[in-house]
């Protein structure tokens, strides 16, 4: 066992890993391996601190939210789902459940996510589930979220160009720095896997969540709810987590030679071979914020820091390129696991700007 000076308070290095010693309990909570870097350590530390933070207030909502999250967390695959509960606890620390009404909910969403309509909808959904549970517990009689109307987020119009995508992709592998007046180039340890990640996002036109959670084999505990590579059938079974509780739309995507090449690259990366195609050095799936961080850093290295590309835009780029290649809207709808064509058109309709061929002449006064 080795102990070294902690990089931050109450964080220690032991046996090649960062550990946080929790206040009061003095339990050692493993954060990550030292080789994962301090950025990853700080991310994990923030997440662990948020789990045990105490919400001071006079209302009973924080206690009820804790109970609701504890009972229902297993039913939600989204890793951020418990964090929604912490937002609610902070916002309603001094509110009792029998006081809750529509204005409370509207003000909560407006105060915290005024210019973020997508997040407003996410939090309304969480609150609605919580209030339904409270109704079942006979703690309230009506769900105030049912009368909270929100504007639908406008479809993004950003389209990643092929050159920009290629530049970001290349910058995931290496970075340059100066030492002793010399310009040096170094490899990014996680670069090859992150490159496989965005390649699969593009080649399959699926949501990044499905690619992060893609498995080599079916999950025996949830065979109908997981996305996995079926070599025998020559397809990838995508079961989109975003739609599993609504339409249940799914798609079997043929393993093309291009996809096969990326799968083989991913299989050959790292010593630990886990069940996930895109995996960390420990064989676990990447967290969404870790993948986003890698994307942003590579974008900055490519000189595109001020261009507002996100990982979600890769899906729109893929569908737009597929349309340009001649695939019809029905094929694109099936690929994207959408329930109707309008959803698909939101990704591609406004991205191809038509060129007008109309030619006019400025009217001139007739000569006398």
Automatic annotation (TrEMBL):
Ranges of residues in domain Tyr recombinase: 170-360
What keywords were assigned to this record? DNA integration, DNA recombination, DNA-binding
Per the UniProt entry, what is one GO biological process?
DNA recombination
Tell me the InterPro entries matching this sequence: DNA_brk_join_enz, Integrase-like_cat_sf, Integrase_catalytic, Integrase_recombinase_N, Phage_Integrase
Question: Tell me, what is one Gene Ontology molecular-function annotation carried by this entry?
Answer: DNA binding
Instruction: Tell me which Pfam families the record gives.
Output: Phage_integrase (PF00589)
Q: Which SUPFAM superfamilies match?
A: DNA breaking-rejoining enzymes
Question: Of which family is this protein a member?
Answer: Belongs to the 'phage' integrase family.
The cross-references to PANTHER family, in alphabetical order and at most eight, read: PROPHAGE INTEGRASE, PROPHAGE INTEGRASE INTS-RELATED
What this protein is called in its record is: Integrase
Lineage here is:
Bacteria, Pseudomonadati, Pseudomonadota, Betaproteobacteria, Burkholderiales
